[in-house]
Write a structure and sequence with these properties.
By secondary structure, this protein is α/β, with parallel strands linked by helices. The chain has 2 domains: 221 residues, QueA-like (3-Layer(aba) Sandwich); 92 residues, QueA-like (Thrombin, subunit H). The protein is built from 8 helices and 17 strands. The strands form 3 sheets. Strands 2-1-17-16-14-3-12-13-15 form a 9-stranded mixed sheet. Strands 5-6-7-10-9-8 form a 6-stranded antiparallel β-barrel. Strands 4-11 form a two-stranded parallel sheet. The longest helix is centred in the C-terminal third of the chain and has 13 residues. It is globular and about 60 Å long. The two termini are 30 Å apart.
Length: 341
C-alpha cells in the first residue's frame, strides 16, 4: 500500500474503510460519512494529547553526530531512543547505529541545551534515560527551539509542528502524533454531536513507531503515560445506559481506557503508565470499536488491530484497500472497526 507523503488538505474527502468483525466483511466510505456509520447514543473518545517536537539533533562529547528521539518524561528524567548520523530522509532501518554512550556521557544540542546519560537500558544500548541541564520554562523554550517533529522517509518534505497536531490537541504529551484523530475537523465533530453521538477525551502520550533496532521494535509500544478523567468515565456510563457503543479514536485511546478498567473491568478515573499490549487474544472490556489509520501488515500497529477483528479479515481488508488505492500511515486514509447493529 502506498504511503501518504504529506499532510492532507481536505480531510473530509479522505477514504474510510468500514470493517465489520461480526459480519466478516468490509465496505468503502468517505470520512465525511462517519456520522451515518455511528448511531445515536454512541460515544466517540479522542486523545487530546498535543505532539512535542521530540526529535533533537546534537553531538556527543567526542564530536559524533547523534539524534535523540524523546519517548516520555518521569520524575524529571526523559527516556529516549538514540540514532546515529543522518535524518528522517533515510529509512529508519538504514540509519547508522549511534555511538554507544555509557552513563555519564553528555550530549550538546546547542549553547542553551545539553543532556547527560543517566542510565542505559538492558533491552538496547539505544534506549537511555537523559537528564537535561535545565528545567521549567528554560527547558521547554530550548526544546521548541531545537526540536522538530519525528517523521519518516516516506514523507516528501520536513514537517512543521502544526502538521502533527489534531484540532483538539491540548497537553504536550505525545512524541508522535495520535494520528487517528488528525482528520477529525471541528465541523465533523459538530456533525457527530448533532447526530446524537457523544464526545469524550483521554490524554495518552502516543509513543514512537520505529526505533531502528529490530529487537526493540518487537517490544513496541513501550510504556506510555495516560490519564482518564472522571467526566469520560461518566460519559461511558451514559453510553452504556443508552445501549450505545464506545468507539476509540486510535489505539492510544484503547490502551488508556482498558488500562483504567484493569484489573476489575470496571472503568474508573485513573492516571499512570500503561504497559498494556493489544493484539490477537486480547478482548476489550470497555471499547467496542476503533477508528484508526491504515498500516502495513508487518507493523506493530497492524498487530494491535487483532484485538478487534480476526487477522484473516484484517489481511483481506488490507488487500482490498491496497487494490482500491487507499493510502497508509499518519497522513493516510482511515478504517473503522465496528460491528453493525
Amino acid at each position: 500500500m502506498k504511503a501518504a507523503t504529506a499532510p492532507r488538505a481536505r480531510p473530509l474527502e479522505e477514504r474510510l474503510l468500514r470493517i465489520d468483525p461480526r459480519r466478516g466483511g468490509f465496505e468503502d466510505h468517505r470520512l465525511v460519512e462517519l456520522p451515518e456509520l455511528l448511531r445515536r447514543g454512541d460515544l466517540l473518545v479522542v486523545n487530546d494529547a498535543a505532539t512535542l517536537p521530540a526529535s533533537i539533533h546534537g553531538v556527543t562529547a567526542a564530536g559524533a553526530p547523534i539524534e535523540v528521539r524523546l519517548l516520555g518524561r518521569r520524575e524529571g528524567v526523559w527516556t529516549a531512543v538514540l540514532f546515529g548520523a543522518g535524518d528522517w530522509r533515510l529509512r529508519t532501518e538504514d540509519r547508522p547505529a549511534p555511538p554507544v554512550l555509557p552513563a555519564g556521557d553528555g550530549i550538546r544540542f546547542g549553547e542553551d541545551l545539553g543532556a547527560t546519560v543517566r542510565t542505559v537500558s538492558t533491552l538496547s544500548p539505544r534506549l537511555v534515560e537523559l537528564a537535561f541541564d535545565r528545567d521549567g520554562a528554560a527547558f521547554w523554550q530550548a526544546l521548541y527551539r531545537h526540536g522538530r517533529p519525528i517523521q519518516y522517509s516516506y514523507l516528501q518534505a520536513p514537517l512543521a509542528l502544526w502538521d502533527v497536531q489534531t484540532s483538539f490537541g491540548a497537553r504536550p504529551w505525545a512524541v508522535e502524533p495520535p494520528s487517528a484523530g488528525r482528520p477529525l475537523t471541528w465541523g465533523l465533530l459538530e456533525a457527530l454531536r448533532r447526530h446524537g453521538v457523544g464526545l469524550a477525551r483521554v490524554t495518552h502520550a502516543a509513543g514512537i513507531s520505529s526505533t531502528g533496532d529490530a529487537e526493540l521494535d518487537a517490544r513496541l509500544p513501550l510504556d506510555e503515560r495516560f490519564e482518564v478523567p472522571a467526566e469520560t468515565v461518566a460519559a461511558v456510563g451514559r453510553a452504556r445506559e443508552a445501549r450505545g457503543r464506545v468507539v476509540a479514536v486510535g489505539t492510544t485511546v484503547v490502551r488508556a481506557l482498558e488500562s483504567a478498567a484493569a484489573p476489575t473491568a470496571t472503568l474508573k478515573p485513573a492516571s499512570g503508565v500503561t504497559r498494556l499490549r493489544l493484539g490477537p487474544g486480547y478482548t476489550p472490556r470497555v471499547v467496542d470499536g476503533l477508528l484508526t489509520g491504515l498500516h502495513e501488515p508487518d507493523t506493530s500497529h497492524f498487530a494491535l488491530l487483532g484485538a478487534f477483528a480476526p487477522m484473516p479479515l484484517l489481511r483481506a481488508a488490507h488487500g482490498h484497500a491496497e487494490d482500491q488505492g487507499y493510502l497508509c500511515h499518519e497522513f493516510g486514509d482511515s478504517c473503522l472497526l465496528l460491528a453493525g447493529p
